[in-house]
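Whiteboard transcription, Tuesday session. T.W. wrote the structure tokens on the left side:
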């Protein structure tokens, strides 16, 4: 899994260092995930929220301050995590170590009990994951997310295709683009309740569109009604 090894071995830190200035300019009113949750604050008020690919936790700090959430976050960048712990006093941030096997080792299930989270956020990170790992990610989230909880994904929105990761010349590391809501919604007990597609005005390529997808986990008995024989 060259992809995950590459990001574990320094690229995640380099990504954060390259983008720290723009990260610190992010604002609530421009953040699609925050805007949805603010408009539906009953979903998160005083509840448990996890963000995967949380960077330095800037979004989690907003949710904690505005809605008294118990916020948890993980990211492969140790530099970003340490920055968030100091800058925002977020004590529940942790580094995703050995990213190439993080999901197979079920690290989230080891750290948190079943049905612990009310909301799980993917903040623009799935496009850098090797596609063969996606089923492991879904299984982990399904274990730690409550029935009635929500998965929120902000990522690229396109038919599946890949492109070489432009920060290096190694053709074995890619950006993978697709409609990432589908990794959950193929399961009958995950319902897509809202999707906002954002076209990138700077680009003529429709493949650069992104989407904020909100997916609800419903009871399996509701998803599979019983019919008489």
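and on the right, the sequence the group agreed on:
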């Amino acid at each position: 899994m060259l992809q995950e090894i590459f990001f574990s071995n320094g690229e995640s830190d380099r990504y954060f260092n390259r983008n720290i200035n723009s990260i610190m300019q992010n604002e609530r009113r421009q953040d699609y995930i925050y805007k949805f949750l603010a408009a539906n604050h009953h979903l998160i008020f005083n509840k448990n929220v996890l963000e995967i690919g949380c960077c330095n936790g800037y979004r989690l700090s907003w949710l904690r301050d505005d809605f008294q959430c118990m916020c948890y976050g993980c990211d492969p960048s140790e530099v970003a995590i340490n920055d968030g712990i100091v800058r925002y006093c977020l004590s529940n941030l942790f580094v995703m170590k050995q990213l190439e096997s993080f999901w197979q080792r079920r690290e989230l299930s080891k750290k948190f009990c079943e049905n612990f989270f009310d909301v799980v956020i993917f903040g623009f990170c799935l496009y850098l994951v090797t596609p063969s790992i996606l089923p492991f990610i879904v299984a982990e989230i399904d274990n730690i997310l409550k029935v009635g909880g929500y998965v929120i994904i902000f990522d690229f929105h396109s038919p599946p295709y890949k492109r070489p990761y432009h920060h290096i010349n190694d053709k074995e590391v890619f950006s993978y683009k697709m409609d990432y809501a589908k990794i959950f919604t193929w399961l009958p007990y995950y319902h897509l309740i809202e999707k906002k597609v954002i076209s990138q005005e700077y680009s003529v390529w429709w493949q650069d569109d992104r989407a904020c997808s909100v997916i609800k986990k419903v009871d399996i008995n509701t998803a599979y009604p019983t019919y008489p024989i």
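Someone added at the bottom: The first helix runs from residue 2 to 23.
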